[in-house]
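User: Please predict the structure of the protein below. I'd like the answer in structure-token form so I can feed it into my own downstream comparison script.

Assistant: Understood. Taking the following sequence of 153 residues as input:
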Amino acid sequence: MTAGTTDDIRLAEAGDEPAVKAVIDAAFRPYIERIGLVPVPMEADHAANIAAGRVYVTGDPVVGLLVLEAHEDHLYLDTIAVHPDAHGQGIGRRLLAFVDARARALGLDEVRLYTNAMMWENQKLYPRYGYELMEGRVEGPHDRLHYRKRLAP
């Protein structure tokens, strides 16, 4: 693998489920106290997402991952997580580059995501990578900020 590329990002396999859960739990656990509830990715059915071909992982052992869902007019970035022990190594940047490449490979020119409004770090991060805030919306107990990124052809 060449540093800075997405060459080591691969589709997750059933055997990756414990690592996927561990990375998501480590990445999202700090938010429980701040937002007052367990973040949605921590309660996801990781086995079902892996079986559906929605999860991509990087690292050996796994240190970062994506959960993606293709729609007719956009690629939905359901979850991006990097283990806190691996922060600062450019993993998140490479994962986001992979999302763009995956959308283009699927013939899609837009990526959408949302984040909890209390995860203020993301409000600084996503715009740096070309995402624009579309709206804030309260959905049940969740106060969410919806973003999109339009990809150049």
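That's the full token string. Strands lie at 10-11, 55-58, 64-70, 75-82, 110-116, 132-139, 142-150.
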